[in-house]
Design a protein that fits this description.
Distance between the termini: 43 Å
Number of helices: 14
Helix content: 25-40%
Strand content: 15-25%
CATH superfamily of the largest domain: Dihydrodipicolinate Reductase, domain 2
């Protein structure tokens, strides 16, 4: 790790469903031994899924044995990439029936993250599932319950947990060198103007099983935006404030050792895009309020901003921890700690650390995270990015989205996972499933 300033000069621096088939309910308990090959299946063979599989296969002792996707073209691409020895399926449940599959990677579109995770746990498979964990809070909790009930390792794809500079930054923040932290700002900025337009409904491409792709979501005609821009629709994703920002919230929770806010609010709208049939706003600002915790002892405010019409900042995705002694600006490139001019601790110096991954950053970061998952499979110890951490890290985005949809501040009971005294908002906590699919653990 390259330090632009001498770390030793920095004071305080210190060196962490359709009702499942009966065979699923049996919940096989066998797991690979420490020297055995882990046989992997991939559910969702798009670009991210294939990248996840490449990363896992770069780790010793792994083999791809099965692939599943509702899109025949994506399935064929993955089959060509990972070899003819891998069996292929349009229905992921058939993949889960294979006895030789030890673990699966779930890299589908977001509204399909939870059901395959639950079914895989029921089938005795461990799971690496992409973020966010579901399109509702209730789905996320069901995934956690399945992992616990069937004693499976389930890791969410918040790969920053496995990056060296994030781990070092976590130690520094938890050591208290920033002083009293009162606010954390996180953001995602992109230039997506003029937006995605309003293409007409039509017939799905012949290689796509549209009804299966819709799954537990309402039955609607095929629309290219619904498929390609799925995260911009209420039924399939949560906008950038959930689908991307879960990475940010995960870091905030980890660094400040918290699990949930007590209140959330949000505002936003279509303020730059031209007419479009997408649903989540192109400009969005949300706030979560957290009570006192181990690091921010007086509580803190988490402020999130998404902007789709301008990308002027040098850091288009970032987190800024604001403390009385210093601030920390961190993203995937590295982090910088900048002391306050009137700080009490005059020995506190500026520190900059850069990302240790030099080449193939995306795959290298995924490989580091995959290695943690594979080690957890063999040790049976929960990984740092355990499914419940992923659930907690998804929830700030869900809560801000709920507040935006009902148009008011909401209060959150994290123990009961209910919105307090607001039935309209609380009805959005769990997604309603289209029969015959059931959210059943």
């Amino acid at each position: 790790m390259k330090h632009i300033t001498d770390r030793r000069r920095f004071l305080g621096a210190s060196a962490v469903a359709v009702a499942a088939p009966s065979l699923y309910a049996a919940g096989a308990t066998a797991s690979p031994g420490p020297n055995e090959t882990v046989n992997l299946g991939l559910i969702g063979c798009g670009g991210q899924g294939r990248a996840d599989m490449v990363a896992h296969l770069r780790c010793p002792g792994t083999r791809c044995v099965a692939l599943a996707d509702v899109h025949a073209g994506q399935l064929a691409l993955a089959h060509k990439q990972f070899g003819s020895q891998a069996q292929t399926f349009r229905d992921y449940r058939k993949l889960l029936e294979l006895k030789q599959v030890d673990a699966v990677i779930v890299a589908t579109h977001g509204h399909w993250h939870v059901l395959p995770t639950i079914h895989a746990c029921q089938a005795g498979k461990d799971v690496y599932v992409e973020k966010p964990l579901g399109t509702s809070i209730g789905e996320g909790r069901a995934a956690v319950q399945a992992a616990r009930k069937y004693n499976r390792i389930v890791q969410i794809g918040t790969q920053q947990r496995s990056w060296p500079h994030y781990q070092q930054a976590a130690e520094l923040v938890r050591s208290g060198v920033l002083g009293e932290i009162s606010e954390v700002k996180v953001w995602d900025y992109g230039y997506l103007y003029p937006g995605f337009g309003s293409p007409p409904d039509g017939d799905p491409p012949p290689e796509l099983d549209w009804d299966f792709w819709l799954g537990p979501s309402p039955k609607v005609p095929y629309n290219p935006n619904r498929y390609i821009r799925h995260y911009w629709f209420f039924d399939y994703g949560g906008g950038w404030q959930l689908d991307w920002a879960v990475h940010h919230y995960d870091i905030v929770h980890w660094f400040l050792d918290v699990k949930a806010p007590v209140a959330a609010t949000a505002m936003g709208g279509f303020l730059c895009f031209e007419a479009t049939n997408t649903q989540w706003p192109d400009t969005f600002s949300g706030i979560c309020y957290y009570g006192p915790g181990p690091v921010a002892k007086k509580g803190f405010v988490l402020q999130y901003t998404f902007r789709g019409g301008c990308r002027r900042e040098q850091r288009s995705h970032g987190k800024l921890f604001c403390g009385t002694e210093a601030s920390m600006l961190i993203d995937r490139a590295g982090f910088t700690i900048t002391p306050e001019a009137n700080r009490r601790n005059k020995e506190l110096k500026e520190l900059t650390v850069v990302n240790a991954f030099k080449d193939e950053v995306h795959i290298a970061s995924l490989q580091a995270h995959a290695q943690v998952f594979l080690e957890s499979i063999k040790t049976r110890k929960r990984p740092p990015a355990d499914v419940e951490e992923g659930h907690w890290s998804s929830n700030p985005g869900h809560l801000m989205n709920i507040a935006w949809r009902v148009g008011r501040t909401i209060r959150w009971d994290a123990e009961k996972e209910q919105v307090i005294d607001d039935p309209e908002a609380n009805a959005l906590v769990t997604k309603q499933y289209r029969p015959p699919w059931e959210l059943k653990v």
